[in-house]
Amino acid sequence: MGETMRAMVLTGHGGLDRLVWHEAWPKPVAGPGEVLIRVGACGLNNTDVNTRSAWYSKGTSAPTTGGALDGAAEQDATWGGAAISFPRIQGADVCGRVAALGAGVDAGLLGRRVLVDPWLRDPEDPLDMDRAGYFGSECDGGFAEFTRVDARNVHPVESALSDAELATFATSCVTAENMLDRAAVGQDDTVLIPGASGGVGSALIQLAKRRGARTVAMCGGAKAAAVAAIGPDAVIGRAPEDLKAALRAAIGRESVTVVADVVGGAVWPQLIGAIARGGRYTCAGAIAGPVVEFDLRTFYLRDLTFTGATVVPPGTFARLVGHIERGEIRPLLAATWPLAELRAAQAAFIAKSHVGNIVVTP
């Protein structure tokens, strides 16, 4: 297979110009307990954008724009609040085939089509969140022809879906499932989903419906028809002047039991105000802005429960693969771009004019 590969390499924090295309980057070699994967497709996600731009840094309070941000610092520029080393190959959402095995790996994996669980855990204490890493952040990921990963993170998948379709699931669906787990969503719940047209938002619709919950999707008017086709019980605007009135018109009441949010921003106080007494708020993102107006009286007087949702517990990804293989969730592939055009693909991703997920193929 040769000793080099094509890869898109992140050279440092900043704008899209920090992504550099290489025709002959050193190809990784599978070490003990690892597999080498020939990448068929790799999905885009906000973690890639936020890490590149150092958006996670406490030095900035801007929305996710994808550009270099004033005040951002390398010391806390990643999801884990620490620095990373460059060069780095990003890309967490890999679908591909196992091309080589390191020592001690089950020979039955060779040639299998697999998905990669992007959460890297300490095998001695997989529940320790402080020791968790993310594929394409704390190690090289899938924006290349080949990638290597611990064999424990590899999940064979039996499906008629294409590599590109399968690459839409990993980050968005595992994030959504983790949010719903943290909020203990069940069949008696009504879940409000801001940003419902994005990868996580659209996954939240499907996975909450799978649990028997009622769903209310929030999105821009131009995307309403496409979002409605995913199957929510109601669709309302992404930033209504009066959210309670919009809910009353859509579902006959002014409140929901759960808000599952990846948006934040200016609409946030209205989201919290629409949660029924004793309800729950779960959050895994803040693309419209991480700093919000928070009235503690609403929080404690209404007996609300807030949960953050980032590090995903072991077993969640395997559950997702089962959903895929049984056809319980469907892919929402918005567009496929060549890996060499990742800059343009990421610009389209940041523009948020699509519904679902964008994928690149080597």
UniProtKB/TrEMBL annotation:
Domain Enoyl reductase (ER): 14-360
Entry's localization field: Cytoplasm
Entry-linked InterPro entries: ADH-like_C, ADH-like_N, ER, GroES-like_sf, NAD(P)-bd_dom_sf, Quin_OxRdtase/zeta-crystal_CS, Zinc-ADH_QOR/CCCR
Location (main, coarse): cytoplasm
Entry keyword set: Acetylation, Cytoplasm, NADP, RNA-binding
Subunit structure: Homotetramer.
Name the record gives this protein: Alcohol dehydrogenase family protein
